[in-house]
Amino acid sequence: MNMPYPTSSSTATPTHTFPAHIEHQLDKATALCTQQGARMTAQRRDVLGLILMHARPVGAYDLLEELKTAERRPAPPTVYRALDFLLEHGLIHRIERLSAFIPCTNLRHCSHTHEHSEACLHTAQFLICRDCKTVTEIADTTVLETLKHICKNENFVIQSTSVEVEGLCADCASKHPTKELPHQGV
Amino acid sequence: MNMPYPTSSSTATPTHTFPAHIEHQLDKATALCTQQGARMTAQRRDVLGLILMHARPVGAYDLLEELKTAERRPAPPTVYRALDFLLEHGLIHRIERLSAFIPCTNLRHCSHTHEHSEACLHTAQFLICRDCKTVTEIADTTVLETLKHICKNENFVIQSTSVEVEGLCADCASKHPTKELPHQGV
DNA sequence: GAATGCAATGTAATACTATTACATTTTCTC
DNA sequence: GAGAAAATGTAATAGTATTACATTGCATTC
């Protein structure tokens, strides 16, 4: 009983339906794709929807499980292809340390335009809580500016960056004995 | 025919021997371990030696291959345990994007003391060349300072960080048509 | 509206990375 | 030397990702 969505350059019927606020974010993502001349297919929309449903980073195989329906049992490449697409278009981020994926925060925000395009260019920064596994995307641009500056000096051409800070979020830190950076390096 | 090494708090005979300059770096690493009350065993020394032998990041299973001798066929946990130890003591770094390992640059430097301990505290920064796979560790401290500042504001307790910049090194960039950050984000 | 070409998806197999659990050996401390 | 702790050996398995090739769907042109 799924009705086709009013996606401008999209394909068939999504196999999943999501709560209204998620659908809204999906529509926004679809609009962004159209704008970039990319196709937000049903498959990709489903995967993005599932990622948006999670409060925490999701693994590819978790998504694979959740994609299963009575009719279809997708294989790994299905999910990885969708993830690649979503990554390329800046709709999600990959958390390297977790081998997991989260939506780009900007998708959750109200603004429909993508003024922040540059800040999202595969150059996001994250705070990862070891305890509750929550990941927060940082809006700061200073880090990226610094990195750009360094790379300019070295004639290194930046294509993408990942900045991941692992530790304890404020909530978890208040519940546990504080453990700071534990040991000495060279 | 391997003779025991003069390691201060070490164990049995290493199964591998390395060129003099590598042995020198290994001795330095051993001294650092002793200083920290940690044991640089033959196994760990072998693994570190192999990592030092590579110009580029090495995967765990590559090391596993290289550890094989006529007598011994180590299993994965052997390598992973050694890697964990070396990581914990700041002797190597893990490049998240590559699931691979490189020596801490300071091991290669001349200074015997570890004045830079803080800068190495699981908080290194890397430039990764997509083309030649070479990884350069950056000495800069600004990025870490910025991150510390941000985290302080958010009451986030930092335990470790990774900053990975992927792109083209100066050499490779000069050989190829320049590809900058390719697409737009949200 | 058939033909063509390209993008997207389906499918099976496999490669690569990492951990668990438990037995054994080595080393340290007393 | 005995006991405890650290390190290693071993087998099995879990988790993540890719390759290669077949098929389908969509878009453009004639």
TrEMBL record, chains A, B:
Any Pfam family matching the protein: FUR
Keyword Secreted: no
GO terms for cellular component: cytosol
GO molecular function: DNA-binding transcription factor activity; transcription cis-regulatory region binding; zinc ion binding
SUPFAM superfamilies for this protein: Winged helix' DNA-binding domain
Cofactor note: Binds 1 zinc ion per subunit.
Family, similarity comment: Belongs to the Fur family.
Name of the protein in its database record: Zinc uptake regulation protein
Species name: Acetobacter pasteurianus
Lineage, uppermost ranks: Bacteria, Pseudomonadati, Pseudomonadota, Alphaproteobacteria, Acetobacterales
